[in-house]
Amino acid sequence: MDICRYSILLSTIIYLFIYLLKQFNMNSKVKVVANATTGAIVNVSENNPEYGYIRLEQTKAIIDDNGFLKNRSISTLLQGNVEDLKSLGFFAGQEVPGKICVQESIEPFSSKNPERDLKVAGQTGIVCRQGESPIYRKTVYDPTNSKTESFVQHDNVAELRAAYDAQKATNEAIKPNAEFSIGG
After folding, report:
1. Least confident of 21-30, 67-76, 91-100, 148-157
2. 83, 114, 117, 177: which sits with the fewest CB atoms below 10 Å from its CB?
3. 98 CB burial (10 A radius; 0-12, 13-18, 19+)
4. Cα 173 to Cα 120, 126, 167, distances in angstroms
5. For residue 137, what are the CA distances in angstroms to 102, 111, 118, 129?
6. What digits encode the pLDDT tens for the residues 2-55?
7. What pLDDT is recorded for position 114?
8. Domain assignments of the chain as residue spans, ordered by start
């Protein structure tokens, strides 16, 4: 089977699998998360005390680039006027209706600060790209369950593999072998 047919077949299988996941609703409920340091639900912006955010989190079944299913925790910030956010009366651990949607694009989501939403591959620092265009990624809360997720497939695979291989080699290089002993 040539690579083109294989790609189409794999894409179709992944699409059908995602469709089935959505049909069986294999994602957890969206939960309100308190600030780990302060315990606050409504967190005030450092730049403007009139505005703030509430952190929301959801565990979702995600399929990686190799077609492997993994449960991942994703989060987003519900932003707004501090008084409006407080009026919601949310509490830590509360389940709220809806879902957290992943949105990816080759167009920046913010014209003022386009670098803010760049999709970076793990801890490599490498921006995922499609052709020469960087991919932008953000998460948004959808209380209506009506939004669809959008993904952009990156194609700078060779660059990412090289970075992961270099990280792996570095991590292996610093691990002591079985003959190494601290004691005398």
Report:
1. 21-30
2. 177
3. middle
4. 25, 22, 10
5. 7, 14, 6, 11
6. 777 777 777 777 776 666 655 555 568 999 999 999 999 999 999 999 999 999
7. 86
8. 1-96, 98-174
Structure tokens at 41: 């639900």
- Tell me the CA distances in angstroms from 145 to 55, 57, 101, one per residue in order: 18, 15, 9
Structure-token pair, residue 132: 């020469």
| 183, amino acid identity | G
One-letter amino acid for residue 23 of the chain: Q
User: What amino acid is encoded at 110 in this protein?
Assistant: S
Distance of CA 3 to the CA centre of its chain: 28
Phi and psi of 134, rounded to 5°?
A: -70, 155
AA letter at 64: D
